[in-house]
Design brief:
CATH topology of the domain at 44-95: Alpha-Beta Plaits
CATH class of the domain at 44-95: Alpha Beta
CATH architecture of the domain at 44-95: 2-Layer Sandwich
Oligomer: single chain
Helix content: 40-55%
CATH superfamily of the domain at 44-95: Hypothetical protein rpa1041
Length: 97
Protein backbone atom coordinates (compact mmCIF):
# COMPACT_ATOMS: atom_id res chain seq x y z
CA UNK A 1 0.00 0.00 0.00
CA UNK A 2 2.89 2.38 0.58
CA UNK A 3 4.13 2.00 -3.00
CA UNK A 4 0.69 2.97 -4.32
CA UNK A 5 0.59 6.29 -2.43
CA UNK A 6 3.31 8.13 -4.44
CA UNK A 7 1.76 6.90 -7.69
CA UNK A 8 -1.67 8.15 -6.61
CA UNK A 9 -0.26 11.53 -5.55
CA UNK A 10 1.59 11.86 -8.88
CA UNK A 11 -1.59 11.03 -10.81
CA UNK A 12 -3.63 13.60 -8.88
CA UNK A 13 -0.97 16.31 -9.31
CA UNK A 14 -0.66 15.65 -13.05
CA UNK A 15 -4.45 15.68 -13.40
CA UNK A 16 -4.70 19.03 -11.61
CA UNK A 17 -1.87 20.41 -13.72
CA UNK A 18 -3.67 19.29 -16.88
CA UNK A 19 -6.88 21.00 -15.74
CA UNK A 20 -5.08 24.25 -14.92
CA UNK A 21 -3.28 24.25 -18.28
CA UNK A 22 -6.53 23.51 -20.11
CA UNK A 23 -8.22 26.37 -18.29
CA UNK A 24 -5.36 28.80 -18.96
CA UNK A 25 -4.56 27.97 -22.58
CA UNK A 26 -7.51 26.01 -23.93
CA UNK A 27 -10.08 28.76 -24.43
CA UNK A 28 -8.56 30.53 -27.43
CA UNK A 29 -11.47 31.80 -29.51
CA UNK A 30 -9.52 33.61 -32.21
CA UNK A 31 -10.68 33.08 -35.75
CA UNK A 32 -8.84 31.12 -38.37
CA UNK A 33 -6.54 33.38 -40.42
CA UNK A 34 -7.61 34.19 -43.95
CA UNK A 35 -4.99 32.90 -46.39
CA UNK A 36 -6.81 34.10 -49.52
CA UNK A 37 -4.91 37.38 -49.57
CA UNK A 38 -7.93 39.61 -49.08
CA UNK A 39 -7.74 40.07 -45.30
CA UNK A 40 -5.16 42.63 -44.20
CA UNK A 41 -5.91 42.56 -40.49
CA UNK A 42 -6.24 46.02 -39.02
CA UNK A 43 -5.59 47.80 -42.32
CA UNK A 44 -8.24 49.07 -44.73
CA UNK A 45 -7.84 49.29 -48.50
CA UNK A 46 -8.25 52.81 -49.88
CA UNK A 47 -7.02 52.40 -53.46
CA UNK A 48 -5.89 49.85 -56.05
CA UNK A 49 -3.59 50.89 -58.90
CA UNK A 50 -2.07 48.83 -61.72
CA UNK A 51 1.61 49.83 -61.49
CA UNK A 52 4.13 50.11 -58.67
CA UNK A 53 5.04 53.63 -59.81
CA UNK A 54 1.46 54.82 -59.42
CA UNK A 55 1.30 53.19 -56.00
CA UNK A 56 4.45 54.99 -54.89
CA UNK A 57 3.12 58.35 -56.13
CA UNK A 58 -0.11 57.92 -54.19
CA UNK A 59 1.71 56.60 -51.12
CA UNK A 60 4.03 59.60 -51.09
CA UNK A 61 1.01 61.92 -51.34
CA UNK A 62 -0.56 60.20 -48.33
CA UNK A 63 2.70 60.36 -46.37
CA UNK A 64 2.96 64.09 -47.07
CA UNK A 65 -0.49 64.38 -45.49
CA UNK A 66 0.88 62.49 -42.45
CA UNK A 67 -1.15 59.36 -43.14
CA UNK A 68 0.63 56.07 -42.54
CA UNK A 69 0.30 53.88 -45.63
CA UNK A 70 1.35 50.38 -46.68
CA UNK A 71 1.60 49.27 -50.31
CA UNK A 72 0.85 45.60 -51.02
CA UNK A 73 1.50 43.93 -54.37
CA UNK A 74 -1.26 41.49 -55.33
CA UNK A 75 -2.29 39.74 -58.53
CA UNK A 76 -4.85 42.36 -59.49
CA UNK A 77 -2.80 45.47 -58.75
CA UNK A 78 -1.04 47.33 -55.99
CA UNK A 79 -3.19 48.08 -52.96
CA UNK A 80 -2.77 51.05 -50.66
CA UNK A 81 -3.70 50.20 -47.08
CA UNK A 82 -4.20 52.52 -44.11
CA UNK A 83 -5.54 52.23 -40.58
CA UNK A 84 -9.35 52.52 -40.34
CA UNK A 85 -9.10 55.80 -38.42
CA UNK A 86 -7.22 57.33 -41.37
CA UNK A 87 -9.30 55.77 -44.17
CA UNK A 88 -11.77 58.64 -44.68
CA UNK A 89 -9.02 61.26 -44.76
CA UNK A 90 -6.90 59.10 -47.07
CA UNK A 91 -9.81 58.78 -49.53
CA UNK A 92 -10.24 62.56 -49.48
CA UNK A 93 -6.54 63.08 -50.21
CA UNK A 94 -6.60 60.53 -53.03
CA UNK A 95 -9.84 61.87 -54.50
CA UNK A 96 -8.07 65.07 -55.58
CA UNK A 97 -5.53 63.12 -57.67
Amino acid sequence: MTTLTPLLILTVVLGLLALVLRWAFGSDRRGVPDHTGTDFGLLTEVAVVPTPEAAQVLASRLRRSRIRVTVVNRDHGHRLLVFPADAAEARLVLRDV
